[in-house]
Design goal:
Layout lengths: L5 H13 L4 H4 L1 H8 L1 H33 L1 E3 L2 E7 L2 E4 L9 E3 L3 E4 L4 E4 L5 E5 L12 E5 L4 E10 L8 E16 L7 E7 L2 E5 L2 E7 L3 E8 L2 E5 L4 E4 L3 E6 L8 E2 L2 E2 L10 H4 L1 E5 L7 E7 L2 E8 L7 E12 L6 E12 L13 E9 L4 E9 L12 E3 L6 E4 L3 H4 L5 E13 L2 E12 L1
Helix pairs in contact: 3-4
């Protein structure tokens, strides 16, 4: 017992202070090392080897990922072709727009281009190649009333990367035509976002139109993959078109041709879609009506009255359709002439027993008209005749106009205001079987 011996207590205290530290005071690792140093050494060795394996695998993978997926932001080139285009820079968002009146090579990501006015157009060149001398690998034609945002424009940082050039556009409204191509062997992936979904485009030629109600996609070359806001997808092949609305997924594609005329076969009541008019001051006027003939509904233009006086009767329809971005504009109709008392088309070649006329605005903003007439009685030699053609009487004749986009190349139509079909002269009787105004 040492409780009663002071010397013994002092020796005990020194012994306790000199005792080695316990496991709690030095930590579990030192205790483990002291108990089994060989095991600890093997654990450290295996951990080091594991770290080595992780680094040996992850570093090459990280390098490979970087080489493949690292990108460089590019700038685009913009050329205004008609009018003044507004450029909204990416930052700050409330900055005043810049009016573009000449070519610019520095359109950065995040910029927004807006075409205002009926005569405003421009071309956005996607300059994605590292070589500044290389041509653009894609172009976007902007037409009047278009708002287009350049969200992303990227090329791979390294030439060895197999990844494509990537373009992400946001079409808020309006109409654009896209031509995508690859000049150096690297593909181009284009995504166009709209209020109703997104469209992924392969190499080819496309027309996209956006209104508050729907997105319309027409494919001339290539393939378009449409994805609706609901996730529904649809593939559109060359020569076809489809559309999607806020609540409507894209239906099965149909022909890219569009008929701008409503009720051109007169299957509905005439006055539901057409307006009739007459021009016969102080004389018996003509009339137009829809009649059943050999199983088809046709419009009949007729006038019986005093001869030798000018009259005119016709139907007209308001179309109000932007045709920018279309390659083809063609009129098709079936006509039969039954009676004509005024020879040819009158002294001024303006009074045909049947004629159609398109009212349009050209790319320069000028309002113009173009039409074509039909007759079967030859005019006197001294009367000029132009703007029409002679056809056989009392037989159906199917007419198809030339491509008006090419025929009227100097005054190319940009906006169709309306169309009218009329008969004029003295006394006449003509039939219109069907009429269509086709854009493609």
């Amino acid at each position: 017992m040492t409780s009663g011996n002071p010397a013994a207590r002092r020796v005990s205290a020194r012994t306790e202070r000199a005792a080695p530290p316990t496991t709690a005071s030095t930590g579990w690792f030192r205790a483990l090392w002291e108990r089994n140093p060989e095991r600890v050494a093997w654990v450290v060795l295996f951990l080091a080897f594991g770290v080595f394996l992780v680094l040996a695998v992850s570093i090459p993978l990280a390098v490979r990922y970087t080489v493949r997926y690292a990108t460089v932001a590019q700038t685009a080139q913009f050329n205004p072709t008609l009018g003044t285009v507004l450029l909204y820079p990416p930052k700050p968002k409330d900055v005043e727009p810049i009016a573009i009146t000449e070519s610019r090579l520095d359109i950065p990501e995040g910029s927004r281009l807006v075409t205002v006015g009926e005569g405003t157009q421009g071309v956005l060149g996607l300059m994605l190649s590292a070589d500044p001398d290389e041509p653009a690998v894609g172009t976007v034609h902007l037409y009047p009333g278009t708002s287009l945002e350049l969200v992303r424009l990227r090329r791979p940082r390294f030439d060895s990367s197999p990844e494509p050039y990537r373009v992400w556009l946001r079409l808020h409204e309006g109409r654009v035509r896209l031509f995508t191509n690859s000049t150096d062997g690297r593909p181009l992936a284009v995504t166009v976002e709209t209020p109703h979904g997104k469209v992924v485009l392969d190499q080819g030629a496309y027309t996209l139109s956006v209104t508050p109600e729907q997105t319309d996609v027409a494919v001339r070359l290539g393939t378009a993959q449409m994805t609706h806001l609901t996730g529904a997808t649809r593939t559109v092949s060359p020569g076809l078109r489809t559309w999607m609305g806020t609540e409507t997924p894209p239906p099965a594609p149909v022909s890219a041709e569009r008929n701008l005329i409503r009720n051109g076969d007169f299957s509905q009541p005439l006055l539901d879609t057409w307006e009739t008019y007459t021009d016969a001051p102080y004389v018996t006027p003509g009339a137009v009506e829809v009649v059943e003939l050999a199983g088809r509904r046709v419009a009949r233009f007729v006038r019986d009255g005093e001869d030798g006086v000018h009259t005119e009767v016709g139907i007209r329809q308001t179309i109000e359709q932007d045709v920018n971005g279309y390659d083809s504009l063609i009129v098709r109709l079936d006509v039969q002439l039954l009676r004509q008392t005024l020879r040819g088309a009158g002294e001024k070649s303006s009074e045909f027993p049947l004629r159609f006329e398109i009212q349009y605005t050209d790319i320069y903003g000028k309002e113009l008209r173009w039409g074509w007439g039909f007759y079967f009685r030859d005019p006197p030699p001294e009367w000029p005749l132009f703007g029409g053609e002679k056809i056989a009487a009392r037989v159906w004749y199917s007419y198809e106009s030339p491509n008006l986009m090419e025929l009227l190349v100097d005054t190319r139509p940009a906006y169709i205001q309306g169309i009218r079909v009329y008969a004029s002269g003295w006394n006449y009787e003509s039939l219109l079987g069907e009429i269509s105004l086709i854009v493609e």
